[in-house]
Design a protein that fits this description.
The chain is 43% helix and 12% strand. By secondary structure, it is an alpha/beta fold. The chain has an 8-stranded parallel beta sheet with strand order 2-1-3-8-7-4-5-6, with helices on both faces. The longest helix is centred in the N-terminal third of the chain and has 24 residues.
Length: 300
């Protein structure tokens, strides 16, 4: 059975007009239930993680400053979300959701998190709506528990996974692959193990050609025993923060290719949703829902 992390705290109220589409975390599960792709049984609520697992990736001073709400104005502004105890609790639970999903993926081949993909979180700072790096935390947790050795992170969000690159810059046991917009945030990029930069308005054909040329070779070279997939839907042409030119069909084909590849090679995969900022929320929800539909279709 497909297991999906979701907690009511994923949906926190934001000031009116805030550009982060928080409501998608409520609408995506509702859509999956409404159409029958999922039942309530598919969803599980993450529990609060052991703080030591967060500290395996993030500096204690940084974690304490979040918990105590003592970030400077500049540090909080870089994150871009109104800091509160509830928000920090939410971030702990998102990381836990990805950790627990990773364990489900080892049993079932795949598992997912409605939220997550917080790849702009560095060892010692947050930015770009990201505070803890959920897939980095889950990767180190799997290794600590000896459930995986070599891990591949496939980051197809339109923005470079700069925090993930920084966290694993000296760690050969986790290979970071980011395919993202060249002329997009973050404007000072870090160095992933493999970065592929795309020009503005890159469309379905070129995008999929590059992905299909890259991913199988990468898996063959690295021989991962676990994959984390960040399936941001901000590659859509409709995305106001994206700058690429992909269609809904192209985004869906991207997800199909990644998931089918993991399935065919029998490599467990955890999927976190990442970004999506189309002006019409229905476009964001549809693109994310496709990822879950494909997981059901391919694996179950």
């Amino acid at each position: 059975m497909l297991k999906i992390a979701f907690h009511p705290i994923y949906v926190l109220p934001l000031p009116k007009g805030h550009r982060f589409p928080m409501e998608k975390y409520e609408l995506v599960p509702q859509q999956l239930l409404h159409e029958g792709t999922c039942t309530e049984e598919n969803f599980f609520e993450p529990v609060f993680p052991n703080e030591a697992d967060i500290l395996a990736v993030h500096d204690k001073d940084y974690v304490d400053s979040l918990k105590n709400e003592t970030l400077s104005y500049r540090e909080a502004r870089k994150i871009g979300l109104p800091l509160s105890k509830k928000l920090v609790e939410r971030e702990f639970l998102i990381s836990s959701g990805t950790m627990m999903a990773a364990e489900y993926a080892l049993k079932n081949g795949i598992a997912m998190n409605i939220a997550g993909g917080t790849h702009h979180a560095y060892t010692n700072q947050g930015e770009g709506f990201c505070m803890f790096n959920d897939q980095a935390v889950a990767a180190k947790w799997l290794q600590k528990k000896k459930l995986a050795q070599k891990i591949l992170i496939v980051d197809l969000d339109v923005h470079q996974g700069n925090g993930t690159a920084e966290i694993f810059q000296n760690d050969a046991s986790v290979f970071t692959f980011s395919m993202h917009g060249k002329n997009n945030y973050p404007f000072k990029k870090e160095k992933s193990d493999l970065d592929i930069e795309l020009e503005n308005n890159t469309g379905d054909e070129e995008y999929l050609k590059i992905l299909k040329e890259t991913l199988p070779r990468l898996i063959e070279q690295q021989e991962p025993d676990f994959i984390f997939y960040l399936s941001g839907v901000d590659i859509l042409a409709t995305d106001k923060l994206g700058k690429l030119g992909c269609t809904q069909a192209g985004c869906k084909e991207r997800d199909r290719y990644v998931l089918q590849t993991c399935y065919d090679l029998n490599i467990p995969v955890e999927v976190s949703m990442g970004g999506g900022y189309s002006p019409h929320i229905k476009n964001i929800v549809e693109a994310h829902a496709n990822t879950f539909r494909l997981a059901q279709e391919i694996y179950f």
